[in-house]
Known about the structure:
This protein is an alpha+beta fold.
Amino acid sequence: MAASGGAVRAEKRVERTKRKRREKEPNALKEEEEEQGDVFAVSAFFLVVVRVQRQLELLARVRHLNVMSLKAYVRDADRLSLVYDFVPGGSLEDVMKRVRSQQVSLSWDTRNRIAAGVAKGLRHLHFECNPRILHCNLKPSNVMLEEGFEPVLADCGVARLIDSGLPDPESSGSLYAAPECYQSNRYTDKCDVYAFGMILGVLLTGKDPADPFFSGESGRGSLARWLRHMQHSGDTKEALDSSIVGEEVDEEEMVMAVRVAIVCLSELPADRPSSDELVAMLAQLHSF
């Protein structure tokens, strides 16, 4: 299903609800069930200006194991609804919250697999799509988990339909945004790589970037700065999530993964790897 062109403006909220419980919020991620029993996720936005047709058609052509496919899009008056396959495993953000509260455990192998899948999804968007697609809002809540913790990137490129495409400085997405996003008001593939570095940092440390710890002197102001400080002081192992350090895994492999996260979090975009290089770097971890 196609919609006429248009730019989109929205303060995105994410919720799940059955069709019979129509939510009043203008923007929501809904679980909708057809008569046949198929379940989809519907992300809805308000349209403000026209000219999104080409971007939507591009997003609808994306097919990759680690990227959520846009199944359909519908324009209804000034409202745009994007339809995706529903992923029952929830988001990485949900899982990490449960890990922090010790409701579930997540092994290093699983975290490593999630990171590798996210990187492969980015590589597909950046190098295998023509024209390339920038995610523009990569964060744990936009990493959905299939059965077996296979990651699927959600809302790829959708932020480019919303105003400037930059995360709201007051939103959780801003914690994963590269410094240059707000300094130059430009978004490049290296911004997606920076966001990946943040996600890898979360997987390795188990910490939430919004934790008040990072506001204090010990936290150095942010997860990225804290990781760099821990590496420079020779305390990289101390930065690792204690729940995975005791596992029968090669700690040196995890330390190398921290270094990958740190290079992705480089202040200068030119110092960050491409997503293609990133996939190769993660694949090499097992050889150390």
